[in-house]
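Human: Not sure, check this?
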Amino acid sequence: MTQNPPNLRPDLAPRARYDDSRRVGQPTIGMVSLGCPKALVDSERILTRLRAEGYGISADYSGADAVIVNTCGFLDTAKAESLEAIGEALNENGRVIVTGCLGAEPDYITGVHPRVLAVTGPHQYEQVLDAVHIAVPPDPDPFIDLLPASGVKLTPRHYSYLKISEGCNHKCKFCIIPDMRGRLASRPAHAILREAEKLVENGVKELLVISQDTSAYGLDIRHAEDRGHRAHITDLARDLGSLGAWVRLHYVYPYPFVRNLIPLMEGAAGAGDSKLLPYLDIPFQHAHPDVLKRMARPAAGSKTLDEIAAWRDICPDITLRSTFIVGYPGETEAEFQTLLDWMDEAQLDRVGCFQYENVAGARSNDLPDHVPAEVKQDRWNRFMEKAQAISEAKLEAKVGTSQEVIVDDIDAEGIATCRTKADAPEIDGNLFIDAGTDALSVGDIVRVKVDEAGEYDLWGELV
């Protein structure tokens, strides 16, 4: 029996998967994709453009004519990881192009790695392509280099991330993402729907909606209507939920109008045939009003509890996932205890937690009363102990129930790794089936009776 505790860094995307089949003599590019699912989508778009120009994709350094490193700049630890990845690519291949969030600080990168061929910022697709063209000129064969209709995917075939906007208008003091990725820029609703339809037509069973602030979708374009589709998250969720695939919402700020999404969710009264999953990924970050004020966050813990109660009244099966920061500058023991008490009341299903880190350029660096490292570690331990106990109790309550699950993997011993509707890929738990899986295939959606529960994972048998 194996445990699979959730990754506690929500800035990390699932490990990229590459199809590195290529013809003899084909110019070939490698890709190291770091950071969040939004960055993974950027990597997919870059590779799709390169494949359309006749480039092959290499899964290893030795088979590539050059390597693109798509970096993360979310935290200083993520920056260090990006610099390490760039250094490894230089050592193993020698011809490296850097893009992504850390690319917004080119001098920082070239100061450590002056041998990189080029540095571009986040979602600067044309500049990345220009750099590749200079380093490795294209040489397409129009009779062989045909791009699949679905483009290049770095996730398993049965699920896909669907990015609906770029940037963010919030000014949270601990975050520099708006400086790196800019202000909110929403995609037209009809373009999102067309992409989603193509993904479903090509076998995708689950759409994971991502952005920096999903709730704010369409605000920048005044919820414009174009070709019969309005750029508003409620309308978009309704349209996506009608396509027949599971639809999972990530990065949803707890604005009051989020309550309008809940009746659309499967399991809610009046949801009809909607496949909008009863799942919200909401970055609450803290519960004490003074900490939230110092963070410049648009929420208060008591009001959030009222909203959670309202959501559960409408959709009792809803799964709530969130992330929190402990040890934020000025956080007192009393403020931290308020967060623990809030967790007891909120009873969130899935929880991740950061220890606060300074990030170059963040306004929180200048706040007084930074919390000592040993205190942050102690609070993180206590917080995760609380979250783990809540998770274990909630999963124990599912023993004996019937759950619809999606199959993510089947190993050589016939053990199927699946997810319930309450579980997003990589960051949440799994449900394992260890018998009778011969007829299953990856991407199948089947019904399972839960017969055992752990701290984060479930086990069951096919029904």
